[in-house]
Amino acid sequence: MSVKVDPKLMKDLEHFGLKDVNKCFQCGNCTAICPLSTPENSFPRRFMRYLQLGLTDKILKSPEPWLCYYCGDCSTQCPREAEPGEAMMVLRRYLTSRYDWTGFSRKFYTSERFEIVAVAIVGILVGLALWLFRGSNPNMEHAALNSVWPAPAIEIADLVMAAILTFFLLSNTYRCAKFIMGDLLYRIPPAIYIKKAWELVVHFATQKRFGECTDKMQWFVHLLIMTGYSTVFLLVAVFLAGGLHVIGLYWDQLAFQRDVEYAIWHPIRLLGYYATAALLYGTTYAIIGRLKKSKAPYKNSHGTDWMFLILLELTTLTGIFIHFARIVDLPMTTYVLYVVHLMVAVPMLVLEVPFAKWAHLAFRPVVVFLTQVKEEYFKEQKMLA
Amino acid sequence: MANTETQSILVVGGGISGLTTAIEAAEAGYDTYLIEKNPYLGGRVAQLHNYFPKLCPPFCGLEINFRRIRANPRIRFFTMAEVESIAGEEGNFDVTIRLNPRYVNEKCTCCGKCAEACTMEIENAFNYGMDKRKAAYLPHDMAVPARYVLDPALVKSADAQKVKEACPYDAIDLAMETKTMNLKVGSIVWATGWKPYDAHKLETYGFGEFPDVITNVMMERLAAWGGPTQGKIIRPSDGLPPKTVAFVQCAGSRDQNHLPYCSGICCLASMKEATYVREQIPDAKIYIFFIDIRATDRLEDFYVKVKKDENLHFFKGKVAKITQDTSGKALVLRVEDTIAESLQEITVDLVVLATGMQPNTSDSPLPIQVPYDDYGFIAAQSAKPGLYAAGTTRTPTGVAEAVQDGTAAALKAIQSIARR
After folding, report:
1. Hey, is A317 helix, strand or coil?
2. pTM given for the model
3. Is A198 within 8 Å of chain B by CB?
4. CA dihedral sign of residues A206, A210, A212, A215
5. With bands split at pLDDT 50, 70 and 90, how would you rate the model's confidence at B298?
6. Taking CA atoms, what residue in A is nearest to B254?
7. Is residue A181 within 8 Å of residue A374, measured between CB atoms?
8. Mutate which of A19, A31, A45 to test chain B, going by most B C-beta atoms within 10 A?
9. What is the ipTM of this complex?
10. Using a CB-CB distance cutoff of 8 angstroms, which residues of chain A are in contact with residue B291?
11. What is the CATH number of domain A9-99?
12. Which residue ranges of chain A lie beneath pLDDT 50?
C-alpha cells in the first residue's frame, strides 16, 4: 500500500491554530504521561509524527483525536514546548472540517472574517424574520411575548431548524464513522452495535472519560455547560409551548415561553434557573481562563473558541435580561431583548452545531462508541479463530 | 619580568580542570594559587568509581597530579577557600579570599581518634547523602590534603571538647576562625565546575519519595569501594541486589522545563554504569531509556561494545512517569517505545536517573561581571581581559576534555601576563 504524503499539511493547519509541530523531537513523553492514552489507542506523539510527515490519510482514519479531552498534561510536561495537546485540538477542528461535506466548516475555521460575516448574516436574517412576522396587535401595556410572537409559531420555526441541523450533523457524523471504520462499518454485525449502544448513551450524557484526566475541574466545567445547555435546549425545543403544539400534545402549564409568572418552585422555572446558573458559571470560567491563559487547554484560543464562548455567554445574559424585563413588566424592553436573544442564539446553533465546535457533541460519543465496537469485534474474531 | 606579584596566576576550583591549569602554569614557570571550596582537591572526579576513557579508578590520575603539586614549589593551594571579591584589571587583580575554618591543623596524622570520640553524625555529602558520617571526618579515604575536618555544628556542640581531648597530637583547634587573605594576581582562571541537576525537581520521577530511584552520580558512589556500600550495588530500600535496572536518560536535560541543553556525557556515563551492574550481577537485566544516544569520537566504540550485551536493552522513548507497583517493592516506568509505537509499563528494581550538569556559576556567579550564556555557563573562554574560564564552568564536558580545556586556560592565563 502506498503512503500519500501531503507536504503542505502543517502549513494548511496553521489556519486551524497549529503551533510549531517541528519543535517535537519524538521522545514520546506526551503519550506516556497522558492518562487516557492506551496501548491500543496511543496519542498524541503519533499524531505529531503524522503532522510532521503530512500523513493526512492516517489522520482521517484515526479515532484518537476524539479520545483526547485536552487536559493539557502533555503540553505542560512537553520538554520541547511543542504543545501536543493543542495539536490534538487542531486535529479535531481539521477533522470537523473534513467530515463536513458542504465545505462550509472549512471556511468557518480557516477565515475569521468568514466566521464573523456568517454569524452576522444569520443574526440579521433572524432579526428581519422576527420583525416581518411579528404579531399585528402586540400588547404594549404588559410584557406578553406571546402577543408578538406566539409560542406555537416559534415552535414550528424551532422544529424546522432542528430538522436542518440534525440532517447536517448526522450526515457529517456518518462520514466521520465511515472514515474511522472504513469497510468495518458494515462488516461488523449489528448485534455488536446493539450490545455496545448503551456506551453511546453513557458517553453522550456523562463524558466519563473526561473524568479520567488529572485536572477534574475541566470535566466539571464541561458538565456544567453541557447539562445547562441540554436543559435549556429541552425547554426551548420541547417545552416552548408546553409540549408539541403542532400535533396538539401540550399542556399550557408547562410552557417555557409564557406570559404568566410561575411560582418560584415551578419545575420549568427551576430548570431555567439551573440552566442559567450552570451556563453562566461554566462559560464565564472558560472565558476568564482563556483570557488569563490559566492552564494548558486555555493557553491557545482559536477564533472559533472565542466565537463559541461569546455567543453562549451573550445568549445566557440576554436570556437572564428577558426574564427580569418580563417580571418587571417592561413590554418594549422585553421584546427588543427577545429579538437580540434569538439573533445571538440562532446563529450559534445553526453554525456551531453542524459545522464547528459544537459538532463534537456527536463526534466524540460516536467515536468512543465505535472504538469499543471495534474492540469487541476483534475480541470475538480472536475467540472464533 | 618587572614585578613577580602581578606575574602570578589565580586558579579558582580544585577539580580536574583547575588542577590541570594550576599545574601546567606552574610547570611552565609561573607562580600559581589554587583555591578550592571543599576540604579536599579533586572535585567531582574524586567521586567517580571509574572514569573514561580507560575506565580506571580516578585516583590513579588524580594521584599523578597531586604528586606534581607536591613536587612544584610554585603552586600554593588552599582548601575550604572561596573568592569573596575581585577588583582591578588584567595584570593587576586584587582578590579577597575567605578561608573557612577546618578546626584541624597540620599536626593531624589521620589517626581517626577524633572521629571515634565523636558521637554527632552528619549527612555524607561526598556520597550524595546516601549515608552518614561522623562530624569529625576525613572527607574521603584518598583525600588531599590528608587531614580531618570538624563540622561547624560539632564545634558549637557540647561534644567539641571531648573530641578535642581525644586527639593525641593536639591537632584540633576549636578557636580557629574564618580568615580573609588578599592576593594580587596578574590573571585568573575560573574553574568552579558543575553540580548534578536537582532530581527533586523532576516531579514525575519520585526521586526522594521512592528510595530505589537514584541518580547517576549516586550510582558512582554505590559502585565505588569507598562508597556507602563498599562498592556493592544494592537497592537502597532493602539492600538486595537489583535484578533489573533502568537508566533514564535526559532526566531533566533537553527539557524546556528543566535544563534545555544536552550535557553530552550522560549517555556514556549510563552505559559505563550499566557495565558496573553487569559485572557485579551477572544475570541482571538492564534498560537504557533514551531519546537519542550521544556517543562521540572513540567513545562510540564503547557504545558498540555495550550494545552487544544481550541483557542490555536500549529502549527509545522518554520515561514520563515512575510509580511504585502495588507491592511497593518494584518501580513501574510508563514510557512509549517510539519505534514500535507501543505504550508500555515496565517494572524494574532500581532506577538510575541520568541527571545533567548544571554550572555552579548558575547560582553562584563570579563576584565580578562576566558574560554568561542562557543557562549560566560562562559564555566564552576569555570571559574578560585577564579572566579565563576552564572546564565545565564553560560547557558540559567529560574529564578528558576538561583536562584539555584546563591546559588551554593555563596558556591563556600565561599569555595574558607575559604580554606586559
Report:
1. helix
2. 0.93
3. no
4. negative
5. confident
6. A79
7. yes
8. A31
9. 0.90
10. 25-27
11. 1.10.1060.10
12. none
